[in-house]
Sequence to fold (1035 residues):
Amino acid sequence: MSITRDSDWSKMFTRRAAVLGGAQAMLIARLVGRMYYLQVVQSDRYKMLSDDNRINIQLLPPPRGRILDRFGQPLALNKQQFRVLVVPEQALRVGDTLDTLAKLVDLGEHERDRIKKEVGRKRGFVPITIKENLTWDEMARIQVNAPDLPGIVIDEGLTRFYPHGENAAHLLGYVSSVDEADLKGDPLLQLPGFRIGKDGVEKVYDLALRGKGGTSQVEVNAYGRSIRELERQEGEAGADVVLTIDERIQSFTGQRLGEESASVAVMDVHTGDLLALVSNPSFDANAFSRGLTTEEWKALSTSDHKPLINKVLSGQYSPGSTFKTVVTLAALEHGVISPEQTVTCNGHYNLGSYVKHCHKVHGSVAMVRAISLSCDVYFYEVARRLGVDKIAAMARKFGLGQVSGIGLPNEKPGLIPTEAWKKATRGERWSPGDNLNVGIGQGDVLATPIQLATLAARIGNGGVAVKPRLVRPTVQGNAPVDEDPSAMFESLNIPLPHLEILRQGMFDVVNGPPGTTTAMAAKLRFTDPEKKAWTISGKTGTAAVRGLTAADREAQKRDPESVPWHLRDNALFISFAPSHAPRYAIAVVVDHALGGGGAFAAPIARDVMEEVLRLDPSRKPRTEEQVASAEPVSASPPPANAGARTPQ
Amino acid sequence: MSDQGFMSARLRRGDMTPGEKLWQMSWSLVFWICCIFAFGLAMLYSAANGAWHPWAWPQLARFALGLVMLVAVAVIDVRLLLRYAYVFYGIVFVLLMIVEVKGFVGGGAQRWVDLGFMNLQPSELMKPAVVLALARYFHGVNMEEIGNPAGLIIPLAMVFIPVGLIIIQPDLGTALLVIAGSGIMFFMAGVRLWKFAAVIATGLAASPIAWTFLHDYQQNRILTLLDPERDPLGSGYHILQSKIALGSGGLFGKGFMAGTQSHLNFLPERQTDFIGTMLLEEFGMMGGLVLLSLYIILLIYGYAIAFRCRHQFGRLVAIGITTGFFLYFWINMAMVMGLVPVVGVTLPFISYGGTSLLTLMLCVGLLMNIHVHRDVHMGVRGGFNDF
Fold:
């Protein structure tokens, strides 16, 4: 019985064990299949998910390139700034910590609300900014009290700093936070607190100055806390931009202008290097990178002196008598009058029923004297003989009516009218009377200060089509670059005798005898003993502004101060020096001055020119003693993203 | 030859000296167990980011204790095991009740009894206890009795009463393991298939009622399995993170101690239930295949021992224990790969946990005992001639 039972048992047992083993083998095969599917077939997908899980890529903002003057003096650089952060999980109670901190630094109720809100929203280990731009004192106070301030961290970062404040604000522009509209392309722009150039050189050279962002791959755990840095790719610091500007001249000019609403452009007549480009009044670009208060913004934007506008490039002025230089050259080119031929000035000029006045009765004047006296009647006659189109052609040769091409934003082209232009824009025929207005640089003629400086430079350099430039193409340290100016620009093909006549006139304007500046001649002489023999040549201009009535004009003659500021004449002066071998050109425009160019613009030009000639930045390097005294330049690396730096 | 004959007779009668029993032991099986354990120890070392504490060292100490226990259990006379199977079952059952009552009184879900040197989980011990009790039961009955449905009431009760206690702990994984393991013992004992169908049908019919008894988190686990996207940040999160971890391990893995997901806390319970994920992440599919092969070797030993055994008790114990191993590792690995819901089942010899490891060593000891006493002639109640 037992044997039967045993054999029955074992048959059944074997059969069922086979079933069981088979089932288990199938189930194990299922495991292997699943393993293959997850670890081989889908592996790439899960690898990607795994990296997403654990790798957090943080951008490292590169330090912005500096903007240097021609001798390497920083005009815009990065300054270390300190900010105080709180790491909520390290602070025992954030409220208490803030109370303690409020005794050390100024903390508004509004700020505290913001901090509390952020603490509620973010994870405990994410640092929250309490205050930026700490003063040294504030930082020191916080550091000293560190033991009572759990969770408080001081973080350093870089902020844009303009050491010369207002002196080059228009030229340099400013940096500001990124607008929605700019948010494309570069991921750096997404970084909180990242600043980009919004105007001037900062804007035009923004990409070069910005540099390339580095990345830091940080491994994070399931809670988002950084564990360690896996890979760090340093970015490229922004490149420095070296300008042609000489900071000393820029600053000197700004100070010389004082409260005036005025523009000055100083240019090397051979290379076109702009040594100063000043628009006054100015603003403090540091305030822009810090963030303006509403009051500051209101004061800047509503002032009638228009401190926010770069008038050197965007101010379009009637060139007035300075335009007579162009008319003179056109007259000589077309031979409408010989240099010796005289015109009689009775103080007025009749064209049909149309009567135009001169500011004086000059009697019989030939060309050189007409320039030096700025006789309007002479130029009415010349302009009538020439016609507008010939004058316009000459004006364009000298860079008027077109942007200078230095590349800064908002540059205006000015306006040189032609017969066709009037037909096209106004639908009117050009009248002979219009010629007279053009002859003395009034009417529709408009020019910007930088164009006037270019005009003076092209006269001074003997008719070479020099173009103003703001950025030095190549620079090795402080050394001036060897350049052959004669090869840089084309000639305008103005016969030298023509230029000699014009330059004689312009010499006489300043040095007499007898120029409109006769009274001023002594004042315009250089005082520097070495330069006593040197002279400036130039041309004054006094341009009426639009909207000035005949009655106003009469009133202005009697008492300039009775006329509202915005209706007063603009005073202009274009010049080059030294007269015997011109090297630098200057254009000065004083808005709504109390008198003419000779009285109000020329003295400024003289002072600036004397400084320029003393320093002679085109030929002389900046002296060692001056370089050494310059501020040290910050070149410290950028702060890593605050989150990555927080001590764990 | 005569020695062998002599030996054989003594083997049959079971009157071997302890030295002879040690000689009879399958030391190669012990070797394979050590291999699996070494693999697990490495993973625990890695799970602690390259440290012996807090897991690897205690686990090693328990393993040493487990080895002693394995040998001790292996040399016990198999007839004593048979004789005291119900007693052992009864003791474990009482322990289970104590935990239950304590948990009820304490108001929390406590699954263990504090023995001073370790926390004992009676539900773990219940697995070998049920195996022994069922083997004892089926050893004593003949085919006719098995054919009688009434004869199944006692063994079914022996399974389902403790299972009920385990479910309300609540420990769904262990309960299911006990049910599945016992079912296979019923099957191997010769119970007709239609009876299984009847039990399963009854179970299915009762499942809506049982469903209402399940805890919310248990319901969630099952629902999450049916639709993993249902709760990507809850239970589904664990499965997804586990899949990401082992999937990213690829064919060859990220290298020892270089698993990123497990080390960065993306995985829950990386030293216990999800240690398999870490293994697969760090050693890739190759590591997984090595581990599976080791388990398969273990299964083959188990089956071989069951087939080689001359008595029904031994066969059933060997099958029950082998099936237990299989269910453990299959469910755990299927779980980390997202094939079955997240149930608290450990990976045998790998996962950290004292009771789990010691219970497993006890089971290997039982298996070894069957192997040592494979030829012992055993009556219905464990005597020599009590047929």
The CA atoms of residues 76 and 369 of chain B lie 7 Å apart. Chain B has one domain: 19-372. Residues 19-372 of chain B form one domain.
